[in-house]
Amino acid sequence: MQKIVTYLWFDGRIEEALQFYTSLLPDSRVLDITNYSEAGPGRPDEIMFAAFEMAGQRFTLVNGNSFFKPNASMSLCINCEDQAEIDRLWEMMTTNGGAASVAGWLTDRFGVSWQITSPRLQAMLSSDDNAAVLRVTEAFMQMHKIDIAELERAFRGE
Fold first, then answer.
1. Distances in Å between the alpha carbon of 82 and those of 44, 86, 130?
2. What does CATH list as the number for 1-68?
């Protein structure tokens, strides 16, 4: 059992979100769905909670109301293995109502903030070469979607 589970608050569209999130990454699946009971406050045929795994990480969607809204003060980060994975996820998450931000950040169609990044970026930013770190920082702060090849060129000073 995972000790800490992230709960994401939704105002409707929970079935759409569940299908979308489990389609993003391998090793993702629905674990459990709990509908409202006759006691409410939702309809008995409506999902109250939906537990799922995404790449082995457990999450729960809560079908609440409009009282809480997602915002960028909390984001989920996906460390992508290569540019193809970055490109695929970026496309899936910024279409149909999603929005690109800066430096690999985006908001999906449900308002949830994500960082689509690469462990290679973190490695470059951890370098002892301060000039290279500055060039990489300047480069990725100008990007919406992370471009690993461009970051590599900046790191080398090209």
1. 43, 7, 25
2. 3.30.720.100
